[in-house]
Amino acid sequence: MLLLAIDTSTTAITVGLHDGSSVVAEASTLDARAHAEHLAPNMRDVLATAGAEPGDVTDVVVGIGPGPFTGLRVGIVTGRTFAFALGLPVRGLTSLDAIAHEAWLDGRRGELVVATDARRKEVYAAAYVLGDERADRVSEPTVSRAADLPAETRALPTAGRGPILYAEALPHAVAPLDVSGGALADLAVRRLRESAPGPGELQWVDPGHGFDGLEPLYLRRPDAAPAPPSTKSTLG
């Protein structure tokens, strides 16, 4: 097994490789607005670090968000294209789950909120319980102003960049800040080993199905929208 994980839902353009036993390579670049420029070099870097070629990859996993429209789309389209070209399965995991999973890997236990930057003075957020076996998501991802999250949620330890951006509303900041490609890869391998997917379901797109079926979590409409039809006559 050689699983390639890609996520562009946060400030980190991140890629990880997992051989089924451990993470063998990871590359991340912090840049909130240049996902397309950094993703391909990071993919080349992790393959080179592992001494692998694209044809050695057996599985592809992408973070499906939630995240800002443009950045999130870069990672999903790249993962789909890479997998489709090689006839590989491509799967998606909720990106917030990867942040909670990294906190769990680092030894954190108990309740946790993950809140990432949604721009427009909002955050993407979800709540988790980190037990002895894994991190379980206990609320669906949402987008809102940090101050509008329930008071009991805002009082919890909070990972992601939300507490950095809105410290008054989310005063209990903890690591990590962004998605890690290594943590996403590790979470995907663990989910693949389970007989049934855990909370934060693993979406499947089988080889030969093209680009259909892998749904990003935008949670709101993109900024760009088609212009309304003109009311002016084309004859006048």
C-alpha geometry? globular
Q: What is the helical fraction, as a range of percent?
A: 25-40%
Mean of residue pLDDT?
Answer: 89
Strand order of the largest sheet: 3-2-1-4-5-11
Note the run of SSEs as H and E: EEEHEHEHEEEEHEHHE
Q: Oligomeric status of the shown chains? A: single chain
How many helical elements? 6
How much β-strand is present in the residues?
A: 25-35%
Structural class determined from secondary elements: alpha/beta
**Strand count, sense and closure of the main sheet?**
6 strands, mixed
How many individual β-strands? 11
Ranges where pLDDT stays below 50 over 5 or more residues in a row are 223-227, 230-236
Radius of gyration: 18 Å
Distance between the termini: 66 Å
Q: Can you describe what's shown?
A:
The chain is α/β, with parallel strands linked by helices. It contains six helices and eleven strands. The strands form two sheets. A six-stranded mixed β-sheet has the order 3-2-1-4-5-11, sandwiched between helices. It is globular, with a radius of gyration of 18 Å. The relative contact order is 0.19. Residues 223-227 and 230-236 have low confidence and may be disordered.
